[in-house]
Design goal:
By secondary structure, the chain is of the alpha/beta class. 42% of the residues lie in helices and 16% in strands. α2 runs antiparallel to α10.
């Protein structure tokens, strides 16, 4: 199987995240997507950063009706700082025969050389990235050629952005349903309201 691994804070998960994984599934022929929300140390939970159980539940709601998705609590269970090299090492053991693809937006890709143990990451997974706005594509190609390729990374750079949205935008406009209606799954929005998340 070709498995797409997609980690994030998902605070909250929005349609940009899901459109990205769907785009990866179709263009890179992935068989399965695993969403992995990061752990939040209890002292960091705030009106800005929801508890990890809520972020995990919202991920489950966002992909409930989609085929070939799973949500993993591997980073939440591990606690501590969520390092991708540790997550990929565990997933490699769980899926020894499968091909792993690590999915991320342009903002993350452009910092990848600074992550902990990038050589472990590049040994265990290929990277898939995507521009977050139109101007990013050439920067991504250039950065890959100059910085990541010499580090033995293999990357697929998708050309078109999916949807211009961020979790920050959703949180900032949480009281204006019309502003965010098209950017977030309705079940996720209802969950936020029910649990009184992100309200100031
Ligand atoms: P925040 O605004 O809180 O920083 P975010 O919207 O960037 O959140 P994260 O959960 O931090 O979301 O991101 C998880 C991953 O999804 C990252 O790799 C990020 O680059 C990617 N991503 C988020 N939104 C988009 C988008 N609209 N298009 C493409 N990639 C995205």
């Amino acid at each position: 199987m070709r498995i797409g691994i997609f980690g994030g804070t998902f605070n909250p998960i929005h349609k940009g995240h899901i459109l990205l994984t769907e785009y990866c599934k179709s263009s890179v022929n992935l068989d399965k997507i695993i969403l992995i929300p990061t752990y939040t140390p209890p002292h960091k939970v705030s009106k800005e950063l929801a508890d990890e159980k809520h972020r995990l539940n919202m991920c489950c709601l966002a992909c409930k009706f989609l085929d070939d998705y799973a949500v993993s609590d591997i980073e939440i269970q591990r606690k501590g700082k969520s390092y991708t090299c540790d997550t990929l090492t565990s997933l490699r053991e769980l899926y020894p025969q499968d091909e792993l693809f690590l999915i991320m937006g342009a903002d993350m890709f452009l910092t990848l050389d600074k992550w902990r143990s990038p050589e472990i990451i590049f040994d265990k997974a290929k990277i898939i990235t995507i521009p977050r706005d139109k101007s990013d594509y050439n920067d991504l190609c250039e950065f890959y050629r100059k910085t990541l390729k010499p580090m033995k990374a293999e990357a697929v750079i998708l050309k078109n952005p999916v949807l211009s949205v961020s979790s920050t935008y959703i949180r900032e406009n949480i009281d204006e349903f019309e502003q965010i209606e098209s950017l977030i799954d309705k079940n996720v929005y209802d969950y936020i309201v029910k649990n009184n998340l992100y309200r100031k």
